[in-house]
Amino acid sequence: MSQTTPAGPAAGRRAARRRLIRELLLVVGLFTVYKAGRMLSTDRTEEAFRNAARTWDAERALHLPGEGAVQRLLLHWDALVHTANTYYAAVHFPATALFLVWLYLRRPVHYLWARRVLAVLTGAALALHLGFPLAPPRMLGEAHLIDTGQVYGPTVYGAAPASDTMANQFAAMPSLHFGWALMLALGMIAATRSRWRALWLLHPLVTLLVIVGTANHYWLDAIVATVLLGAALLLVPRPGRPADGDADPAPGADEADTDAVRGLPRPRSLPEGVGARR
Q: CB-based contacts of 15: which residues, under 8 Å, 6+ apart?
């Protein structure tokens, strides 16, 4: 008599580890490619400043409010401008990483959707960074803005943009600070059922005020990021809304469960009439 050994929890754990390692490698790889690609335009200083002047003139032609209005509000209190600099430097990557981790653990189907949208958005942003190098408003003399990071701290940028080996300071458009923050908010709204989920929109709103007030981005940087995100959302199919309190099924879990069930012995059918209500 042969005995079939069912695929137990150990097989499921191994499959889960493989999926986790695959996702970590994919996300880290995509981020590494993006960071390396951004550095290709660090030596295009003259072009970046010409584009900055054009962007500034375009904003005035469109009657957008001056970035200085937001910065003047921040400069009323040293603690406020320091908080804005800290938000710019410390919230962007950790918030996005926590967003993806939470989705992976609780809403795997939504995680796949969000990861794909962020990949499309980031790829489009990289292409624009390479094709349209742009000096931020803190470097543009006619903007009359100060570099709040250098003056008040903290800052993620070196004092000399040309010698900054950690970041490309001429990759202002589009603003991925704003694009990722907006996707985080939209992703949490799509993946949750709380009546308060619209409050997630406060994150991109605060991010917008921070990136403009610290003179790291123009209004148009956020507008272009929004347009690119909209295009990415149209390209990537959106998953269905989850039920209250339910988690999405893990990606590939259905296939694993099906394989496990195939290895189990089939139950014998009951004789006719057994178990029927009399």
A: 252, 256
Distance CA 142, CA 49 (A): 11
Confidence (pTM): 0.80
Could you tell me the two tokens for 217?
Answer: 């981005």
Tokens of 24: 């970590």
pLDDT single digits (tens) 5-63: 455 666 667 776 777 777 777 777 766 766 665 666 566 889 999 999 999 999 999 99
Distances, alpha carbon 228 to alpha carbons 19, 54, 180, in Å = 29, 20, 11
Record the tokens describing residue 162, joined without a space: 């040309």
**Residue at 29: amino acid letter:** G
The structure tokens listed for 83 are 């908080």
Provide the greatest CA pair distance for the chain: 91
